[in-house]
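ugh ok fine here u go
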Amino acid sequence: VLNPPLTIAGGSAEKVSVTYTASGAEAAEGTMVFYTGAADTTGSELKLMANLAGPCIKTNPSHVAFGNKLINQTAEIALEIESCGDVELVINDIEMIEDADGVFGVNEATLGAFPLTIAAGARVSVPVTYFPTTAAQLGADGQFVLDQGKLRIKSNAYLAELDVPVDGFASTGTCPIANITIAEGEEVLPQTKLHLSGVTSTA
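structure:
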């Protein structure tokens, strides 16, 4: 809404600035409507478009989550990089810019030398690794505290630096097993008082 209204004299022109801030590499579209007075209820539409052409980058997954892994063992997830535009995507560098005590890594050497050109519509994969050395602790919220990192991909896309979050947590052994036994058996009469035991569970 223009406040005050924009007045344009007959036979003249005025400029209106339109800005766009990308929230990602995907295409964006919108509409601007001009109303010329109180009697104008339909307005005149101006279509707005951004990132519809040119190089585009997309990763799968968009967030590399390792979940629970054993300490002192390497886990690996393949990060897929897609050239989602209508022209070639050029990857200039891939690096870990944030790392939880060196537990995360990216083996960019599997892609060869940079810059790397990916044809429109094509994909490549790069291994992301997790080698935890200490078991995760429980936080105040009762959830395990995650090791967190961030991988950055530099390219010629509109979003020149794409950051991919990476996380995981470690344990010292296998997952706990809950095993509950009922002293009264598996079939009882209604209102029977049950005595439960978990002594055979493993933590």
